[in-house]
Amino acid sequence: KSPDLPQAHILRSLSNVKVTSIHTSHSGCHAIALSLDGNAFLFGRNQNGALGLPSSVPAVSETTPIKVKPTSLPGATPGSRFVSAACGRSHSLLVASDGHMWASGANNFGQCGQNPCSETKGFKPVSSPWLKSDPADKAIKIGAGLTFSLVLTESGKVYSFGSGDKGQLGNGRTGEYIITGGKTGFEIVSEPILVKGAIDGKKIVDISCGQQHSIALDTDGYVYVWGFNGYCRLGLGHQKDVMLPTIVPQFSGENEITRGLFVAAGPTNSVVVDRQRMYQMAGKWKNSGEGSTGQPYTTFRFIPDIMSCKMLYVSSGGVTHWCITPDDEDENAPSSPVMTVAWGQNAHNGELGFGEGQPKSATKPQRLRPLDGVDVFSIAAGQNTTFFLASPGGAELPRHPEEVDHPELCVICSKDLGDDELELECEKCDSPYHLKCLTPPLKEVPEGEW
Fold this sequence. Notes:
Layout (H helix, E strand, L loop, with lengths): L9 E2 L7 E6 L5 E6 L4 E6 L13 E2 L5 E3 L13 E6 L3 E6 L4 E7 L9 E9 L13 E6 L3 E6 L4 E6 L13 E2 L5 E2 L2 E7 L9 E6 L3 E6 L4 E5 L14 E6 L12 E6 L3 E6 L4 E5 L13 E6 L10 E4 L4 E6 L11 E7 L17 E6 L8 E6 L4 E5 L8 E2 L23 E2 L6 E2 L17
Parallel strand pairs: 1-31
Antiparallel strand pairs: 2-3, 3-4, 4-5, 4-6, 7-8, 8-9, 9-10, 11-12, 12-13, 13-16, 14-15, 17-18, 18-19, 19-20, 21-22, 22-23, 23-24, 25-26, 26-27, 27-28, 29-30, 32-33
GO molecular function: small GTPase binding; zinc ion binding
InterPro entries: RCC1-like_dom (IPR058923), RCC1/BLIP-II (IPR009091), RCC2 (IPR028641), Reg_chr_condens (IPR000408), Znf_FYVE_PHD (IPR011011), Znf_PHD-finger (IPR019787), Znf_RING/FYVE/PHD (IPR013083)
Keywords: Metal-binding, Repeat, Zinc, Zinc-finger
C-alpha cells in the first residue's frame, strides 16, 4: 500500500507530458488526463472497467498510467483528438474533436449510453444525435454523476442519459413504476436525449454534475439546476426534487454583474461564481454547524472568509472545496501570481495538501502554503485525492514516487559512446540522453531551466 501524500507532488509518470486538462469524480477514485497532442492517460481504480480495461484488473497505478489514442477507438475520425473527459463513480466518458463520444464502465442504468448491462467492456461509441442534427453539432464538454451522464454541444444544447430516479436527466419525470413484489423501478434512458425545460432555446456554455443533480450556465449568466435536491443542494430554498431545468432566481436579476460566470457541483453542494468573481455555495458542504446536514445552505450564500477574493477557478471534491484566486499578499511575485485556497471538514487522506505535520481537515478556507509560488490554473478534486495543473517553473515541489530506477544508457540509442559523448540527465525525469540524440540535436547544454 502506498502512503498518502500530505502535499502536492509532481507526478513523474506525466512530468514530460503537456497536460491540458485533468478529470476525476468527487465520488470516484480514478482520473483521466488529456494531453496537448490529444491523447488520454488513465489511472486509478478500475471498478467495473471504468478505465476501459477488463474488470479483473483492479486498478492502474498513477506511476504507470495507460495511454489511449482517439484513433484506437471504434468510429474515430483520423486525426481527431480528445477534447473532454468525465469520470463518474465507476464509469468514464471521452469526447473527441470530431464530436464523437465513447464510454466505459458500469452501465447498469445506461450511464455509458448502451443498453443496460452490468458493465461496458472497453470504450464503446455512444449514440451521438447531435452529429445528425441540421446543421451538424458536436459534443465539446461532458459531465458524469453516479448513474447518469451529461453532454454539452458546441451550439449550447445539453443531452442526458442514464438513470432518471431523481430527475437528474432533466426530462420532466422519474419514470417511476412498480416492479413485481412491490418494489419500485425508475426510467432508464440509454441513448442521449435533449434536455429542455428552462434551458430550451438558451445557449448553455457550462455544465457540472453532482452525484444526482446538475447545474448549467448560459451565455447571459443565468444559472439552471435540476435533479435531486436533498440538503437544498440546488439552492432553491426547498428540498423538493426538480424534474426540469429551473432558473435560480439569485442569478437572474437585471444587474448583469450579479449573474453567473462559471459553475461547479460537488456530491451534495453546488457552487456559482458570479460576474464579480465572488464565490457562492448551496447545499451541504461540511459535517457540523452551518452548511451541515442539519443546517444546509438553502440558497446560494457567500463564504465569509473568501468574500474579498476574486475567483479564477473553483472545484469541489468528496469533502473538499477549492478555489484559485489572485495572490495580493505577495507583491514581489512575478506577473499574475495566484493563491490556492482549500477547506474541507473530515478530510483524512491528505487531500487538502497542507503538508506533513499539518492538520488534514479545515472547516474554513485556508491558503495552501506548499503551493506558494506555483502557478496553478486548474484543480480536479476527487473523492480522496486532488490533482493540480500548473504552468512550468515556479517553486520546486517533491516528486512522486520520490525515487525511481533510471536507465543507465541513453534512452534513444541505448549506446555507451564513451567519454567523447557523455549522457545528459534530464532535470525533470532523470533519464539520460546524448545531446545529438535529442530532437532537435543540441551542441551544448542549454542555459537556464530546461
